[in-house]
Amino acid sequence: MRFNITRTGSLRYYLSKFCSAFLCGGSAVLFGYIIFGVIVRIIFPSLSQYELSADDLSFVLVNNKDELTGVLRYMLSAFLYGAISTMPALFISSFCKNPYLITCVPFMVTYMWQITVQKLIANSMMKEDFDRASILENFYPNSIMNLSYYTAFADTKYILFFNLGIILLSVIGFIVIMNMRPDKGV
Fold first, then answer.
1. Is the pLDDT of residue 58 over 70?
2. Would you call 173 exposed, middle or buried from its count of C-beta atoms within 10 A (0-12, 13-18, 19+)?
3. pLDDT > 70: what percent of the chain?
């Protein structure tokens, strides 16, 4: 590993770790959703077999007229969810070698984050501040999965900027901490 770092440079090595975590995390969740979708498709009949009104069908297909576009958008949001979910673990791996902590601490932080957002939304609802509550819904840990439902940029800008911030903070923190280590991560 020392030879890899000296040959490629530390920044390139750290960015390759980021790319590998991003792609592997996204692929793992994406393939899980694909397997789930194939099983659901085999077990259940197609939507044309049901007598659905236009309102019910639009509720099932969300904002898409055809089923393929909805599936592709859902697959993209599943990939992004998996990719972004690995970022806290990547950051923790810069200063911790314990695999149990690297695995469990992001789940604990995500749980605390979700509970905090829920309490803030409940507080906003009690004060009848519905605009603030609707904005806060975009800051859930799994809010990236809602990209398959929204079509307007006004609805998705908070989700995109927030998740981009998570990625940037994790990567910058990872690079800074790894550069501060005397062994450079080896």
1. no
2. middle
3. 83
Q: Which two tokens stand for residue 88?
A: 């806290």
Distances (CA, A) of 167 to 21, 61, 65, 79, 163: 11, 30, 32, 14, 6
pTM: 0.80
Distance CA 70, CA 60 (A): 10
Q: How far, in Å, are 1, 2, 4, 17 from residue 9 at the CA level?
A: 11, 10, 8, 13
pLDDT per position as a tens digit, 117-173: 999 999 999 998 888 888 888 888 888 887 776 655 556 788 888 889 999 999 999
CB atoms within 10 A of CB 174: 23
Amino acid occupying residue 52: L
Task: Say how far apart CA 182 and CA 13 lie, in whole Å.
Answer: 16
Classify burial at 22, counting beta carbons within 10 Å of its beta carbon; exposed 0-12, middle 13-18, buried 19 or more: buried
